[in-house]
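Researcher: Next sequence.
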Amino acid sequence: MNRRDMLKTSAAAAGALVLPDVLGATQRASATVTEAACLWGAYASPPTGKPAPYAFTLLEKKIGRKLAVTRHYLPFDAPLPGSSIQWSARGGRVPYISFKARHNNGDPVRWSAIASGRYDRFLHEQGARLRSWNKPAYICFHHEPEDDPDCGTPAEFKQAFARVRNLFLHAGATKLAWVVTLMASTYGGGHGGPGPWIPPQYRMLGVDGYNRFPCIGSRSKHPWKPFWEIFAPARHVAMARGKGLFIGEVGCVEQDDCGYHLGNPVAKANWITGMGATIEHWPEVRAVVYSSAPTHHDGYPMEYQVDSSLASLAAYRTVGHHRYFMG
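Model: Next structure:
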């Protein structure tokens, strides 16, 4: 998707484009980025015909540092770990493996079938491959399950999550940090709240959330929400349960997205700056993985990518070089 020249020009005129000194500098060694107080990660959407490593490498060049965490979306059928995940780990990053109970063609895999043992042999083989790979990774079985009712009920999801985790452990895949990931709105009380969805055993609570203003929801505009307002409910649940919080998806759109031409052209940059400042005061957040990918709503662009404007890229670069996120 093309970037908005208007936003670039307006941001430059506003004096918001003072880039950090690291622009164009050699990326720092990987020895420290995975030891930071909060790991700085991203999903990078690859251009058509390009592999995932290309997109991650391009993003790292733009932000002048190595990502600590890379996000990888996989269907149920995909053999683990896969070439992109192996590439990430070889480079000193920690992959975040996220696989849904959906076949390659998009058809659902019923959670009840997984829980009943129908896929035990396949899942044990997946775990054995991860044991042989022998690298640390974050792993999530079926992120945002509450958004996929065709896969089953909350109780069936919890049973399926537990069975997948146990099969992987029995296969010897012991270097995986298991994350159960729900939508930010669920932690705020939607979909029956988080309780019905959280399985008994996991390492960290995961959460996905976005600021979509001014884009259209089902009936009205999404209101503008700062980072802290979106993620505070999930943080409170994590604190109450004594768990770390893993932010597996986060993003903000520009204020002229979705066909609108209004608002502050550096609002997204300010939002990203506020995200960094908030996380530095939330020690429960162990990793934050930004969704740097464009999407559409009703035919209009929603520019989540970090370089949707020079202002947003500058903000993301600057925050990512704070010591809190660099180690």
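Model: DSSP finds twelve helices and ten strands in the chain. The longest strand covers residues 244-252.
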